[in-house]
Write a structure and sequence with these properties.
172 residues; mainly alpha; 7 helices; 2 strands
């Protein structure tokens, strides 16, 4: 087998994880999983958050796929793409950690981008944090950021419709 097919599977899996992350952020973290996610939206000076437990869920997904793809674990029943899907999930987890926890929330390093896509990512995620509580909100993805002007307009519309409580300085 050439390396091209496994590489495509890794890339497709990493890209697909942004959709998984968006849906789980919008419907799980801001839904029944709010108990774990809440502290991420509240000021604190702790090193770890309950929200970090979601990283363990992602790690379990990656490890599970590595196991599904491993002949050492499943013998002849191993499904070879599982290894590459597990690697794609791992790659996404690393990108997420660097972008979301590192760049946006500055948990590992301090750098405030002045322009470009990195600035757009930071702005979009800050607009996500502009709502109070789990209702409403914008920008549930982590790596692909929409135009901050459109996100501000959505927040304003949510506030006016009574869908979300928006902090004074963020909603436009």
């Amino acid at each position: 087998m050439t390396i091209l097919l496994p590489l495509l599977i890794v890339l497709a899996s990493a890209l697909a994880m942004e959709g998984v992350a968006w849906a789980s952020h919008k419907y799980v973290m801001h839904g029944f999983g709010w108990g774990w996610h809440r502290d991420h939206h509240e000021p604190h000076d702790k090193l770890l958050e309950k929200n970090d437990l979601f990283a363990l869920v992602g790690a379990a997904m990656s490890i599970s796929m590595f196991a599904v793809g491993s002949p050492l674990v499943l013998g002849d029943r191993a499904w070879w793409p599982g290894t590459w899907i597990g690697l794609g999930i791992l790659v996404y987890g690393i990108i997420y950690t660097l972008v979301h926890d590192g760049l946006v929330h500055q948990r590992y390093f301090t750098w405030v981008p002045k322009r470009g896509y990195a600035k757009r990512l930071v702005q979009a995620h800050r607009l996500h944090h502009a709502t109070v509580g789990k209702e409403g909100g914008v920008s549930f993805g982590f790596v692909f950021a929409r135009d901050p002007a459109r996100l501000k307009a959505e927040l304003k519309a949510q506030r006016e419709a009574g869908i979300a409580v928006v902090r004074d300085s963020a909603g436009g």
